[in-house]
Fold:
Amino acid sequence: MRQKGFENPFAKRSLGQNFLVDRDVIQKLLDAFDPTEHDVVLEIGPGRGALTDELIERAREVYALEFDRNLAELIRQKFSDKKNFILIEDDALHADLAAIAPGLQPLRLIANLPYNISTAILQRLFLYPHVFSDCVLMFQREVVERISAPPGTKDRGYLTVLTELHFDVEPLFDVSPDAFRPVPKVWSSVVKMVPKKGANVNEQAFRDLVGTAFTHKRKTILNNLKARYPNAEAALMLSDIEVNRRAETLALDEWLRLSECIGQAN
Structure:
């Protein structure tokens, strides 16, 4: 019997929770993900189980990662009779995603991510591209605009380039605030992300380079880089990148060339 008090847990502002309640949007999200009987699925933040029901019905196995104790208890009781469902009580910002189902990789990932930690979880995924075959994720719309921004646009930045290094990104559809309870003040967007094969690059050095280049977006890439990289001008020339360009104009292949050349132009 379900314990009293777990029927309808309140959303916690401290955890950035907004529960998806619009059945049409839930179905649209599931249709975009399209789980099959062969899939092993990880759902981050199942909440009250809006997506979980159908995931369990359609997928081979479903792992749900939930940090909130009340929601975890609700989910545990709601799906206690489902043999293909495994609840993991842990924090997505610290959990070892590669250890969730090591014999059943790659996983498929689906999540309605809390607004306040969505970019932090995204950056955690950069550590695990080998774990997933694909990801269908809901973010604040502003985040999707940033991670999908093409070269030369104002939304392009550090997070865009790091996401491009690890994933192919396809925005799918926007979601109105009215689809959630409580109703947030912002729109959301759903995006599909497919991991790329690992680039031959020193990840930390690449992060440092891109982060430095975006330090002051109004400055040219040379002016941003030269304080940290004395050989910046020579590296840009070796990379066939004009020194007066701004960081947001560079495409991923240019970043990769520059990352290689910055170590050669000493």
In short: Confidence is low (pLDDT under 50) at residues 1-6.
